[in-house]
Amino acid sequence: MIELVTALDALIGVLRGALLVVAAGVAALAGLAYMVRTRRLSPFGSVGRFVRGSVDPLFVPMERRVVRHGGRPASAPWWTLGLVIVGGIVLLSLLGFVRDQIRTATGLLSGGPRGALVLLVHWTFAVLQVALLVRVLSSWFRGSAYSPWVRWTYPLTDWLLNPLRRLIPSFGMMDLSPIVAYFVLTIAEKVVLGALLR
Q1: Residue 17, pLDDT score
Q2: Predicted confidence (pLDDT) per residue in 152-162, tens digit
Q3: CB 108, CB 47: distance < 8 Å
Q4: 174 forms bridges with which residues in the sheet?
Q5: Which of 45, 41, 23 has its CA nearest to residue 33?
Q6: What is the pTM of this model?
Q7: pLDDT (average), residues 123-130
Q8: CA 149, CA 134: separation in Å to the nearest integer?
Q9: 66-85: buried (b, 16+ CB within 10 Å) or exposed (e) per residue?
Q10: CA dihedral in degrees (142, 147, 151, 152; nearest 10)?
């Protein structure tokens, strides 16, 4: 397991550098494309022809999405840059999360049955917190409750959210019950783990 953690550390280091270079390249191309699209640079000069022939095709998929959602086509390069940055952060965070879980599992499983039970409790609460987070994020983006990406969160969170919604009034459009539920789960995990580790 230590070799896997070391390999993940090396991969994260390489990806961090590579993603930084890719983001810098996309930022430079996005700036050029934006300047040509908004006529700050002549679209008929040598730079404009290069951008229209070689750079613009890279931004076409994002441009279609931006236009479909009512945005301006000239902003597509910046949306692409944002996607690269956010995607890179998410990828590095996921790899870091996997590395940390492997480290935690290795340490706890070396403690025998009690360590395995602590690991199971920790992962159970982690899954409940992730389900809560996915459910909240899906409500912000108006995702379908029947989508396979969201549907699994309802059975895992309804048992906690429904009683809290009856107790905690909503403030206008703001529902505070998921925030309270997250803190309840965090406190419950600490209490259960504290009882197990005595």
Answers
A1: 95
A2: 999 999 999 99
A3: no
A4: 171
A5: 41
A6: 0.71
A7: 93
A8: 8
A9: beeeeeeebbbbbbbbeebb
A10: -120
